[in-house]
Design goal:
homodimer; 237 residues; alpha/beta; Alpha/beta knot; eight-stranded parallel beta sheet; 33% helix; 24% strand
């Protein structure tokens, strides 16, 4: 069945404009057709189209199913956006498919990209959420200076910073990660974190980690962290 | 230091044409400059340029370092190429970065892509191998009919087939995977494996598995399998 994203569905009983156009113009859905609508906060609504309008498609809610994320312990990745936006976009898409709670684009000393428009990324997250049959959207933050992220007291106590410098003592991420507990992993830019950034992170409880002996690109490291978190959790089930 | 790929380096003492052009024309390397050369079979050579020719760049081997893959137990993924080639290409790139031994493009009943030119993929593998500081190239097979892959007796005994059909009894991949042992994982096309294909695979010792509750795209599932294999292995180190 076709799935749509409408964050305010219970209040408006309307699909947003782009979703309305897709439903009515592209898919040619008509009144009486059944669709699924997710609100991005873990709710799935079985709906019936009541007004096939290509800008404001009206629906009637037939049933409600709570669809919480299937993993336990939130997964947050704070990652410096890559110079090439495609790489950041596919990482966000794949992380959403695998399951992630929050993506914080990091502004670092060595960041090659200092600005990031999140609008396009948000669309990719919506589409990946629908495609992978989830009802919850990851939180996507605006670009945030690393010092602010590090100082954020709302971050969970399980904190890691992936760092490439072999001179720094680092633990193996997979060996120290505690599955099921909220986690935040920071991934640096192409030029890595600066020593000052790593020092500040350590002072705030971040544990320097390595993902092994491959030198991973920024976006690969971010995705690997998400995959590893799921794999290690699911190995225990 | 710049790293080049020259499979026949010990015999020819020359970089291949494209690598020569890159070294001499793009990077403007000159006689006496030091470079690293990998042969794709786990050997890294420290070299010095002896003839800066833009088609046949000659080198002198100064030292040899064996760089075996850092993981134990080969990882083979047999995956149906996606309709959109970009998706297959990034999967191959990322799997190479994380570490994979063999990629077999699978021709299945429901394959949306029936042909695959491996030339471009091979270039992506070379570049990912160099970028992630490896000296060994994954083996990239030509597109192979699934029945032939399943019947291949040289495949390791640890065999999984990822299958989406919830009516089939499946194990959780992460819970049954034995890290460190050679493994082959089959990933189906967008339309999944046919029941006959799954039946045949089971008869040949493949265990039907799921990666969890997210519906992953073909390329995401393939990459997830590689990441999970590394994560589960590295958790034990």
């Amino acid at each position: 069945m076709h799935r749509f994203y409408a964050p305010d569905i219970t209040e408006t009983l309307l699909l947003p404009e782009a979703e309305s156009a897709h439903a009515v113009r592209v898919l040619r859905l008509a009144e009486g057709d059944e669709v699924e609508v997710v609100d991005g906060r873990g709710n799935l609504y079985g709906c019936r189209i009541s007004l096939a309008h290509s800008k404001k498609c009206g629906v009637e809610i037939v049933r409600h199913i709570a669809v919480p994320n299937h993993w336990h312990g939130t997964i947050t990745v704070a990652v410096a956006p890559t110079k090439n936006l495609d790489r950041m976009e596919w990482m966000a898409e794949k992380a959403t498919e695998m399951g992630i709670d929050r993506i914080t684009p990091l502004l670092c000393r060595h960041s090659e990209r200092k600005e990031l428009k999140t609008e396009r990324l948000r669309k990719i997250l919506v589409s990946a959420m629908k495609q992978s049959l989830k009802a919850a959207m990851p939180q996507l933050d605006e670009m945030t200076a690393i010092a602010r992220v590090i100082a954020d007291e709302s971050l969970p106590p399980q904190r890691y910073i992936a760092y490439c410098d072999e001179a720094t003592e680092r633990r193996q991420f997979e060996a120290c990660y505690r599955p099921g507990e909220d986690v935040v992993v920071m991934i640096g830019p192409e030029g890595d974190f600066s020593p000052e950034e790593v020092k500040l992170a350590i002072e705030h409880g971040f544990v320097p980690v390595t993902f092994g002996n491959s030198r991973l690109r920024t976006e690969t490291a971010a995705l690997y962290a998400v995959a590893a978190a799921h794999a290690l959790k699911q190995a225990r089930q």
